[in-house]
Amino acid sequence: MSKTRVLIVSQEMQPYTAASEIANIARKLPQYIQENGMEIRVLMPRFGTINERRHRLHEVVRLSGMNIIVDDDDYPLIIKVASLPEARMQVYFLDNEDFFKRKRIFTDADDQPFEDNPDRMVFFCKGVIETVKKFGWAPDVVFCNGWMTSLIPLYLKTAYKNEPLFQNAKVVYSIYNGSPEKTFSDTFMAKASINNLTEDDLSAYQNGKGVTLHHGAINFADALIQGSEQIEDDVKKALSDTDKPVLDYQGEEGFEAPIKEFFETLVTEEVEES
User: Fold this and answer.
1) Where's the Starch synthase catalytic domain (predicted)?
2) C-alpha angle 52/57/62, rounded to 5°?
3) Cα–Cα distances in angstroms (integers) from residue 88 to residues 54, 76, 150, 205, 243, in the given order
4) Which CATH number fits domain 5-273: 3.40.50.2000, 3.50.30.50, 2.60.40.420, 1.10.3810.10?
């Protein structure tokens, strides 16, 4: 029997970014599930805070060279890779000078969110899917870790719904407390509307008052994980109201086995249904 393939897409990951709930899960989970019989690919942004020399990043020429369209502009996508020797694990980084060269991750020196965070998110989410297509590697589970990945469930279920590589993939979205969506402007929907998506396709990502990233991802994902112990009340209600599988908060330690089992259950159900 072939190994279950898990695509892990994370906005942060130790040791490349500072410690956080998201970075902690992104570092420990892939190593654990790989050591316990699953096949993985890990993708994240190549933020300018990441020291390429220290972490020995190098470009993967065969994967680079694509252009990603965001708001009618073309942006080159460069793919880099680094290895974590102690984990026997490779991490792929999506890079672009316009979006990721700066020496801060999501906020400026005054701790204000970057105005182009929506553009950076669209670039990253679409870039991830196009990169996996270049891999020619069909995942059984797509694990989206953090708000920056929240458009991937939408794209896989709409714009890329006929892409053979993702036909059988279960999309899992992990929800953490907070996101910069309150700073997103009215132009976000237009930016996110790739491949002729309509305003109706994106309606789950807005509530009449503004952008709601977690709600949109909940609507399109196949299953959800509560990554933070405390989350916003409206998001908590959306999780309790959904009929989709939900894995409750598992704590800062010991979460690896329950998440692996959660993935296995989703894949088993897919096989039984087919």
Assistant:
1) 5-237
2) 140
3) 17, 29, 28, 37, 37
4) 3.40.50.2000
Q: Which residues contact 126 (CB under 8 A, 6 or more apart)?
A: 68, 69, 70, 151, 155, 194
pLDDT, average across residues 109-125: 93
Task: Provide the Cα torsion 28, 146, 194, 50; round to 10°.
Answer: -60
Joined together, the tokens standing for residue 137 give 């590697």
Domain ranges of the chain: 5-273
- pLDDT one-digit tens code per residue, 217-255: 999 999 999 999 999 999 999 999 999 999 999 998 999
Q: Put residue 48 in one of left, alpha, beta given phi > 0 → left and psi -120 to 50 → alpha.
A: alpha
